[in-house]
Amino acid sequence: MALHTTGDLLHWHPHIHMIALNGGLDSKEFFSELPAVDCSELQRTFANKIFDALLEKELLTPETVSSMQSWENSGFSVYAAPKIEAKDEEARLFLTRY
Q: What's the rounded Cα separation, in Å, for the pair 89 and 95?
């Protein structure tokens, strides 16, 4: 994971880039692929964790959080890119340089 604090135009735009495996090995070294990521659920969960942390630190009020949660565009988003095959070195290099 990498925290970025600016967007393409060098404006304040905090966001996280992450590379994740889409599965794992069991005790017999058999690879099991994980089901597809539910981006909507992940987005809601992430937003709620951030709001909880800001409330705990008293950096936002419950009223502000409630208002922000009612916005059509919350400012939170999750994108899960198509998977990259293990042997696709060019795609892996591009992604890790990004």
A: 10
Q: Is the dihedral of CA 85, 87, 91, 94 positive or negative?
A: positive
Which residues, other chains included, contact 70 with Cβ-Cβ below 8 Å and sequence gap of 6+? Answer: none
For position 37, what pLDDT does the model report? 85
The reply to whether the predicted model has a pTM over 0.85 is no
| Distance between CA atoms of residues 17 and 72, nearest Å | 23
